[in-house]
Amino acid sequence: MNWVYWNTFWSLAVSLVWFMTIVSHPDAVVVDRHYPKPKQPR
User: Collapsing DSSP states into helix, strand and coil, what is residue 38?
Assistant: First the structure.
């Protein structure tokens, strides 16, 4: 069952590299793509 841990390790490693690549990209901007909702009258 050692291959289970090996596959899990590589899956997490690749996911981490992918995430860090996206986050550290100079053009990456985290914005809200949704239009602001009108305020609901109380």
Answer: coil
- Rounded to 5 degrees, what angle do the CA atoms 7, 10, 15 make? 125
Amino acid letter at 4?
V
Single-letter code of the amino acid located at 16: L
What pLDDT digit, counting tens, does each position of 5-34 carry?
888 899 999 999 998 888 777 676 666 666
29 is written with which tokens? 């901007």
Report d(CA 6, CA 16) in Å as an integer: 15
Find the helix or strand (DSSP H, E) in which 2 lies. helix 2-23
Contact 28, 22 (CB under 8 A): yes
* Residue 10 DSSP symbol: H
